[in-house]
Amino acid sequence: MFVDVVEAAAFGTNCYVLAPAAGEECLVVDPGIGVEAELLDRLRAHRLRPAAVLLTHGHLDHVWSVTPVCAAGGVAARIHGADRYRLADPLGGLGPQLRAALAAEFGPETRWQEPSDVVEVTDGETLRLAGLEVDVVHAPGHTEGSVMFAVRRPGREDLLLSGDVLFAGSVGRTDLPGGDTAALLHSLATRVLPLPDGTDVAPGHGPATTIGRERAVNPYLRQLVPPASEKEF
């Protein structure tokens, strides 16, 4: 499977490109701030044609470029229904200073438009797009509609696009509007910890990791795992 990543111009957001191979249709995941030009170059270089844009959640650093990317490819954006409202105003939860700073560097807020075609995804749904099978895993806590996308890889563990649910050594913050610490811990316990150790994790920010590594070193996961002496045998 072809996997490429374009780092956004702000907040270090990872925008992923997935395809069965170069020269085929692809999925674009979380096109953040300022990725359009580099993303287009990568698509041209590898002869890739977007079939859909997937959004792990509705925060602006993951959706800033969704409308031009969708428009350029003539494709729909897919987002969980609980975060659908965020596409109306992804800047809505920001303070005035940050809004002004982003507008000054990346363009006036009035330029924001929702994608013309938005499809809501649901927990447990399997998306069959661009020759790939992608399972939708609803994992609220960072936002109400945060999801992880588990890309099936025959003969191997899934590739988990974890968005801002799980990072290498950390997890997504819960102090922004719509965040819920208890919900995130529940998501980690029920949606992340049961995954096989060999699952590769491609997070929304920072380097790639594996479930096995995070189970061993991530303090947020370790607090959810009982000591060996307390486990049932």
Automatic annotation (TrEMBL):
Residues 12-205 form the Metallo-beta-lactamase domain. The keyword Protein biosynthesis does not apply. InterPro entries: MBL_Glyoxalase_II, Metallo-B-lactamas, RibonucZ/Hydroxyglut_hydro. Keywords: Hydrolase, Metal-binding, Zinc. CDD domains: metallo-hydrolase-like_MBL-fold. The keyword Metal-binding applies. This is MBL fold metallo-hydrolase.
